[in-house]
Design a protein that fits this description.
With 842 residues, this protein is mostly beta strands. It contains four helices and 49 strands.
Length: 842
């Protein structure tokens, strides 16, 4: 209760400060942060303007019989919504027209002309001053405009560097051009999610995250429609998602869409770039807001698309550097895109003279695609990716076990590597207008190989080899405000494994949060073989979008061969405007997933496991307040069952259950010289193991205290290892100009739970041993971090400098006791640390 009161006092104080800042900023001139981006236009060729005579609005143009009609539509590239009242000027005739409510317009042009020149303007969008359109290839033009202001549609949020506004039970779509969690995380979008109130993570060094106290393994990650169970590098340092190669990034705090599978937690859907829609290096036409390629020509300084790449981007930071490029060829009918990224600390270490047989942790990513335009809206895409991780180092003279009751030490060498990849072929029919079919058919193969070895006096290893073959088909049709979608996802997974490790090696991380040291006392687990399983899911979904709200209703039928289960997963979400300034958001669903889907997890060899299931309902109220402030408050209830638990050492069953509840509140103001966002969440997440709770205590049958043995307690509810009871964040950004801003971000939350020690015993063979106490009954110290950041952008890029943990607060992510358990040794996160980053288009 004391901690709750302290947090409430902090919230009241912060709110007072924020409102004072907001009131002071109202007297200043409003400066809106503008997005420096280009406009995307189908079959556009950028040339020098020609001298023409402009005809005023409403001017009468003589129409001769030799004229033909050219029509088109203007839409927002960020959302895909039609833009009403956009002004279109045709240079050839001097005529002007306005787009209607559906964003459409129409002109009559001389029939003999094979190209025309347009200017497009709108008060809320970036203008197109002059464009050449090749009408010999199409008479229906699709124009995409970029917003001058950041938008906040009903459900989606187009945000800056972080998705600042808390969304309860809905999805967030981030502006990938501004994704950046800082130099430490190398602009990783998964780090950017950490500012959302429902997201919690274990440490500053870990990109993995938990939603509402659920396991990070409960999240599903997609890249170009393919599921990646563990998309992380080096165990969570960052992910395979690099901002330079992302076309769209969508995050959902729960699997809202029936098209999503493999998750009972959050869903991240990323589409890689197939030629950049928003590049500052030039215009390439035809890219929709969903990231699909449309086709067109690129021309800069009068040169053809074959002479210039569509985009080139380079970024460098503390951990790694990346380069990406897209090029249009064959008159715009083919677009080739690629990205390469690598960490470089190991290269620097080697150059300085590294120790023998030592290689610092490193990772790399290679991603690319070739897109071929076909007739109409059809296209064919060949995509490939490869990601790797590697490390090798000596761990020195460490205790590795006991022989005959006598401890011994020896030199150990640790090595680890992982390779994951994907090769896919997609045939798609893109969605462009109402009442049109769209969809895709895809086949793919995702290979996986990983190996962990610790050599020395006691050899321990885990090796995994295999992959997943996938077939995916999605189809939909729009009927005015309604959209009907259906699809199937089917996969076959195959692995071969070799496992050999001691109990101490495995149990040291079995629950990620135990304070008890369990050394290898001779217990050894050995397993090898192969396993394969299939998964098939079929879904149907109906969506409606109206002027006062919308809803999404769907269900998914899933067949899991490993557990021989058939699961039905209905889902419903919606948003409704109950007044001009107030909106209600709600969602509910039932979800299922295979808990052993992740290659490299020893649980994947288990048989007889059920699918984990969860249900969640959320409700939120969002309202526009005075002084440009938006407020939102909501809550949720969650239940989990058939959770995978360890019932015996290295033996898994599906006897776990979970329950959770929480509330979230937030305030946001984005107008003027100051942008301010404040959010707070309270989460209560618990679990219970059935038929018993496994702990480790001295063997009661032994004559003397020598080793710990499994003990079985009656089931009881304990805190989730991933719960953050209280979480508060505040970010204030000051715009000094359109190109320069300074921000400060503060985040604080309760320390995560851990299992403390019980009784401490002195072993007759020497040394000390401690039993495990009540599971997750203690908490690490609270977390607090303040980051300062200055960012400057120009026409060809962005650079920033920041100071992480500016107050040098000692944040703890784990602990280990001394040999006699008399002292606690804290494992701390980053101290005060400067960072930098540069991102350039060329």
């Amino acid at each position: 209760m004391f901690l709750v009161n302290r947090f409430l006092q902090v919230i009241v104080s912060i709110l007072s400060i924020v409102l004072c800042v907001i009131s002071a900023s109202m007297a200043e001139a409003a400066v809106t942060g503008q997005v420096a981006s280009e406009t995307v236009v189908t079959d556009a060729v950028v040339t020098e303007p020609v001298a023409t005579e402009t005809v005023a609005a409403g001017a009468v143009v003589n129409v001769e019989p030799s004229f033909r009609k050219v029509s088109g539509r203007v839409v927002s590239r960020a959302t895909g919504d039609p833009i009403k009242l956009a002004v279109i000027n045709l240079f050839e005739t001097g005529s002007m027209t306005l787009t209607g409510g559906d964003g459409r317009f129409e002109f009559e042009v001389p029939a003999a002309r094979t190209n025309i020149h347009l200017a497009v303007t709108h008060v809320s969008y970036r203008e197109i001053p002059f464009l050449e359109i090749r009408t010999d290839r199409t008479n229906d033009i699709e124009l995409y405009l970029d917003v001058l202001l950041y938008e906040a549609p009903l459900i989606e949020v187009v945000a800056e560097r972080r998705p600042l506004f808390p969304i309860v039970g809905q999805s967030v779509e981030m502006d990938v051009a501004k994704i950046s969690g800082g130099a430490l995380s190398q602009a990783d979008p998964l780090y950017a999610l950490k500012t959302l109130p429902q997201v919690s993570s274990a440490s500053d060094f870990d990109g993995r995250f938990s939603i509402y106290g659920a396991s990070p393994d409960a999240n599903a990650f997609f890249l170009d429609g393919l599921l990646f169970s563990s998309p992380y590098h080096l165990g969570g340092l960052c992910s395979i998602y690099d901002a330079s190669n992302i076309e769209t990034f969508r995050f959902s705090a729960m699997p809202l869409s029936a098209a999503s599978h493999g998750a009972t937690g959050a869903v991240v859907e990323v589409e890689s770039r197939t030629g950049s829609a928003g590049s500052q290096a030039g215009n390439i036409s035809g890219y929709s807001s969903t990231g699909e390629m449309g086709g067109g020509d690129l021309s800069l300084d009068g040169k053809s698309s074959d002479e210039y790449p569509a985009t080139n981007e380079f970024s460098i930071g503390l951990l790694s550097s990346s380069i990406s490029s897209s090029r249009s060829m064959d008159g715009g009918d083919i677009v080739v895109s690629g990205m390469a990224r690598r960490s470089y600390m190991d290269i620097i270490y080697d150059a300085l003279g590294s120790a023998e047989n030592t290689q610092l942790p490193n990772f790399y990513d290679l991603q690319g695609s070739i897109v071929k335009e076909l007739e109409g809206r059809k296209y064919l895409k060949l995509g490939a990716m490869l990601s790797g991780d590697e490390m090798m180092m000596g761990t020195g003279n460490i205790s590795t076990g006991y022989e005959g009751g006598d401890g011994y030490e020896g030199e150990s060498m640790l090595s680890w590597y992982r390779r994951i990849g994907a090769l896919s072929l997609t045939y798609a029919y893109r969605e462009v207008e109402d009442s049109e079919w769209y969809g895709r058919a895809m086949i793919a193969w995702q290979p996986h190989r990983s190996n962990f070895d610790m050599s020395g006096n006691d050899y321990e290893a885990m090796g995994w080899y295999g992959g997943r073959g996938t077939v995916r088909i999605d189809a939909g049709r729009r009927f005015g405000d309604y959209t009907l979608a259906t699809g199937v996802f089917s996969s076959l997974s195959m692995i071969e494994y070799e496992l050999r490790f001691g109990r101490g090696f495995w149990l040291a991380s079995r629950n990620e949060n135990s304070a008890v040291r369990i050394d290898n006392d001779g217990f050894e687990f050995i397993a090898d073989g192969h396993n394969k399983w299939t998964y098939t899911g079929i879904y149907g979904e109906l969506k409606r979008e109206g002027t006062r709200g919308g809803m999404q209703l769907g269900t998914r039928v899933e067949a899991f061969s490993r557990s021989r289960e058939l699961s039905l997963s209905p889902r419903l979400s919606g948003h409704w405007m109950i007044s001009d300034k107030t909106m209600v958001l709600t969602s509910w669903g039932i979800f299922a997933r295979d808990p052993a889907e992740d290659f490299g997890n020893p649980a994947a060899i288990g048989n007889g496991l059920k699918t984990e299931k969860a249900t969640q309902i959320s409700l939120a109220l969002r309202r526009e307040l005075p002084f440009g402030i938006t407020g939102q408050a909501g809550g949720y209830l969650r239940r989990d069952w058939d959770l995978m638990i360890e019932s015996e050492p290295v033996t898994y069953t599906s006897g776990g259950r979970g329950r959770g509840k929480g509330i979230e509140v937030g305030l946001e103001r984005r107008a003027g010289l100051f942008e301010t966002v404040l959010s707070y969440s309270w989460t209560r997440a618990e679990r219970i193991d059935d038929p018993h709770t496994l702990t480790f205590r001295p063997d009661p049958a032994a004559e003397s205290v020598y080793n710990l043995a499994p003990a079985y307690d009656s089931p009881y509810w304990y805190s989730s290892p991933y719960e953050r009871r209280h979480s508060i964040s505040l970010e204030i950004k000051r715009h000094f100009s359109e190109r320069f801003n300074v921000s400060v971000a503060w985040r604080a939350n309760s320390g995560r739970p851990f299992t403390p020690i019980g009784e401490v015993y002195e072993r007759e063979v020497g040394g000390y041993i401690a039993s495990e106490g009540r599971r997750m009954s203690a908490n690490l110290p609270y977390y607090s971090r303040i980051d300062l950041r200055a960012e400057w952008s120009w026409s060809r890029g962005t650079c920033f400098f920041e100071v992480l943990n500016a107050t040098n607060h000692e944040n703890v992510f784990n602990l280990r006791y001394s040999e006699d358990y008399s002292l606690k040794n804290w494992y701390k996160m980053i101290p005060i640390m400067p960072g930098f980053g540069v991102r350039m288009n060329f």
